[in-house]
Amino acid sequence: MNKKVENLSASKNIENFDKEKPIIEFRNVNKKFGDFTAVNNVDLKIYKGELFSLLGGSGCGKTTLLRMLSGFENPSSGRIILDGVDVTDLPPYERPVNMMFQSYALFPHMTVAKNIAYGLERDGLPKQEIQSRVQEMLGLVQLEQFSDRKPHQLSGGQRQRVALARALAKHPKVLLLDEPLGALDKKLREETQFELMNIQQSLGTTFVVVTHDQEEAMTLSSRMAVMNSGQIIQKGTPREVYEFPKNRHIAEFVGSINIFDATVDKRQGDKIFVTSPELNSQLEFVNAQFPAKNGNEVSIAIRPEKLKIKREASNEAGIISVPATVKGIGYLGNQSTFQAELDSGKSVKVMVQNMRHSSDRSINIGDAVYISWHQQTALLLAE
251, 277, 296: which is the final residue of a domain? Predict the structure, then answer.
């Protein structure tokens, strides 16, 4: 497959999505299974041409939301609008969507070409048009030379592409993908992410992806929504969600992060002064809209890659340094992860890009060091 390492979140003009008519709308959608609320008052708009991800842990409601969009589940209340049409009560076969399942659900007795043609034959399309579309899809996923093979003769990545081609052959307005890369190993999954992005970008079809994998959602998405307990708790571009999480749950779920307990000392204009015993420091934040009063307990969050670890404290303006002791070092090839313990006993994770061989490392386990960061890279979280 052709690998264009181009993230759609950068290549698409995301700002224009909100100015267009949404292709998908969830309007106050709820879903209950007995006394259990799987989806709770979800309002969401997804726009034409987006590769949109629903991200969350097991039981958060993301798959239920996808199944309601496909028609396999009915909402307990609320409406689902698809390309301007209310499809809430329509069966799956009357909706202009197709779904690609995690298991791929390929027919083992059929060839690759027959698997791709199956849905078109069921729809009664002319034979010549079916052949044309099958060739189009085989070319799209670059499997022309495997058209006569059966699924058991293919690799996991090739089976994934057959399932994708079959789902796209009917030219759906929306393609739904439930954990599409979950069955692949790490290296193949990473390669396939870019292949999937390139296919989506070339077709312009709206993709809605359900995943529990943060890295996958961050890589694939033009926008994403983080779900928890049946609700969407934040949506935005991958950068917005990662750099500016709305609360502690999102900060801890999306990526790795260090969290420190703190208390609000005072507010002065648009400035907030907080003290953290774990950091043994008072920090200043500029955020006039932050919903906290004097004495409120808050959290300070700092991503590991935004920290520096050195033998000396920094004297630069705006840089905060706290003493620590190195307790562990993990070598990951392109980077090293340092586990350090502050004087307060709090453990801190620091990620450093490896610019030289590990044997040349100047900091080792047991060394006294300083953990430093620019005050603007720290986040203040209310919950």
Answer: 251
Q: Within this chain, do residues 260 and 377 fall inside the same structural domain, yes or no?
A: yes
Both 205 and 316 in a single domain? no
Instruction: Give the pLDDT confidence of 226-275 residue by residue, as tens digits.
Output: 999 999 999 999 999 999 999 898 999 998 999 999 999 998 888 899 99
Host H or E run for residue 309: strand 308-310
Alpha carbons 257 and 306: distance in angstroms, whole number: 10
The CATH number of residue 368's host domain is 2.40.50.140
Beta-carbon contacts of residue 154 (< 8 Å; ≥ 6 apart):
112, 146, 162
Q: What is the CA radius of gyration of the chain?
A: 25
Burial class (CB in 10 A: 0-12, 13-18, 19+), 92: middle
Q: Which residue from 325, 305, 324, 312 is spatially nearest to 373, judged by alpha carbons?
A: 305
Q: Measure Cα distances from 172 to 5, 63, 89, 144, 255 in Å.
A: 26, 19, 19, 22, 33
Q: Are 189 and 216 in contact (CB under 8 A)?
A: yes
**Domain that residue 236 falls in:** 8-96+172-251
The end-to-end CA distance of the chain, in Å, is 44
> Rounded CA gap, 359 and 174, in Å?
51
For the chain, the domain total comes to 2
Q: Which amino acid is at 362?
A: S
Stated pTM of the model: 0.83
DSSP of 261-274: EEEEEEEETTEEEE
Beta-bridge mates of residue 36: 33
